[in-house]
């Protein structure tokens, strides 16, 4: 990952996005299609962290997963991930979540003020 991707990861983490999810997103933005092994290499995450991050991205309908059978030998199919939502939409979703959380915190502060 280059400096731009590292900065993106740091900024996403400051917005309460987990480190594995932030790194996975940065990797997905760097290419059209990417395998889980490539995400591991680029992000320096372990396989379970990549799996958890990709599951989170799938649950939010931000990525599509394709399973390719290996050409030779046995074993599990290779998972290939594709970002299906533009990054600006992902940022908007994160923004709405942060604003909602902050609004709730401010409401709780106001309640505390009123009862004290």
UniProtKB/TrEMBL annotation:
Q: What is this protein called?
A: Transcriptional regulator
Question: What Gene3D superfamilies does the database record attribute to this sequence?
Answer: Winged helix-like DNA-binding domain superfamily/Winged helix DNA-binding domain
Q: Which InterPro entries match?
A: UCP037373_trxn_reg, WH-like_DNA-bd_sf, WH_DNA-bd_sf
